[in-house]
Amino acid sequence: MSASQTPEYQAQQWWKTDIIDMRPGEIRYRGYPIEELIGNVGFADMVWLMTRGELPTRPQAALLETALMSAVDHGPQAPSIAIARMAMTCGGSLNNAMASAVNVLDDVHGGAGEQAVELYQSILEYQIGGHPLEIAVEEGIATWQRERTRIIPGFGHRFHPVDPRGPRLLQLVEEAAERGEVDGNFVAIAREVERQLIAMKGKPIPLNIDGATAVIYAELGFPAPLARGLFCLSRSVGILAHAWEQQCQGGRNKGPMPKGWLWPYGGPAPRPVPGRDRP
Predict the structure, then answer these.
(1) Euclidean distance between CA atoms 237 and 239, whole angstroms
(2) Quick check: 108 pLDDT over 70?
(3) Which strands, in side-by-side order, build the sheet including 26-29?
(4) Beta partners for 20?
(5) How far apart are CA 169 and CA 240, in angstroms?
(6) Which helix (H) or strand (E) covers residue 266, if one does?
(7) Which domains does the chain have, with CATH numbers?
(8) CB 224 within 8 A of CB 114
């Protein structure tokens, strides 16, 4: 029996990973010993190391941290936060509330960042193909609306005429581009998308938090699917905070509407149950 056919070898290969090497008394992430990482790198550095395989530069880590901290919360009106708080009033634990909330961060609520990165990357491909920025954005928007949805991800907001997070994040990316820390391609794309959407709609369609953090993730080279994962990681901070606050406040069986508020009913008018012998 060859070494690759032994049960021991097959068991060792069951979960093959390049992420962590662990044995009694030793833990290494991507080759780095944990005792040297502790105290020398921050949480954003570790997120980068775990997902990308290498430690980031200080400017890269700073931009990543900026994106992560900017999207931690948007209040109980956000379905994920409301679900976390409701779960706590049902007797759930913090981990139950967090899992319940993260599970709804999907295509509509939580997926716009990933979609915005995809849009930006498709526009960059048009530029690489020889189109100037304005034409590349026109093509990107048209293709997206034809093949995906009329909604352009990362732009517009239900509550904010101007999302206060967007301009500040773009400013930081542009400053990083001036220092040569990122290329600046995606921040230019986002600004042109915003300009064209305003021209198309005849009203402000501001860049929102999803579109702004997508600029950062794209500038830093994160694949689009990781943008959603990073948003889930970021929003988990707010989810945890609200779940803990609700546990401290107490309350039992709080649903989506206050006590005494009832939903509109549009079904049949009151009517008797027919007799059993009715044909």
Answers:
(1) 5
(2) yes
(3) 20-23, 26-29, 32-33
(4) 29
(5) 24
(6) none
(7) 17-56 (no CATH), 57-250 (1.10.230.10)
(8) yes
pTM: predicted TM-score of the whole model, two decimal places: 0.91
Inter-residue contact 132 to 123 (CB < 8 Å): no
**Contacts by 47-50, CB closer than 8 A, 24 or more apart:** 47/230, 47/233, 50/19
Could you identify the residue written with the tokens 């915005």? 116
The pair of structure tokens assigned to 143 is 């293709």
Q: What are phi and psi of 86, to 5 degrees?
A: -65, -40
Q: How far is 113 from 219, CA to CA, in rounded Å?
A: 13
> How many angstroms separate the Cα of 23 from the Cα of each of 7, 28, 33, 50, 54?
19, 9, 12, 18, 21
Q: Which residues pair with 115 in a beta bridge?
A: none
Tokens 């990122």 identify what position? 182
pLDDT at 4: 67
CB 244 within 8 A of CB 89: no
Sign of CA dihedral 263, 266, 271, 274: negative
**In b/e form, how buried is each residue of 171-185, taking b as 16+ CB within 10 angstroms?**
ebbbebbeeebbebb
Give the helix, strand, coil percentages of the chain, each rounded to 5: 55, 5, 40
| Structure confidence at residue 237 (pLDDT) | 98
Q: What DSSP letter does each residue of 141-163 carry, written as one string?
A: HHHHHHHT-SS-TTB--SS-SS-
pLDDT in tens, 31-67: 999 999 999 999 999 999 999 999 999 999 999 999 9
Going by DSSP bridges, is the β-strand pair 20-23/32-33 parallel, antiparallel, or unpaired? unpaired
Q: Which residues contact 270 (CB under 8 A, 6 or more apart)?
A: none
Give pLDDT tens digits for 227-274.
999 999 999 999 999 999 999 999 999 988 888 899 999 999 999 998
Distance between CA 113 and CA 107 in Å, rounded? 10
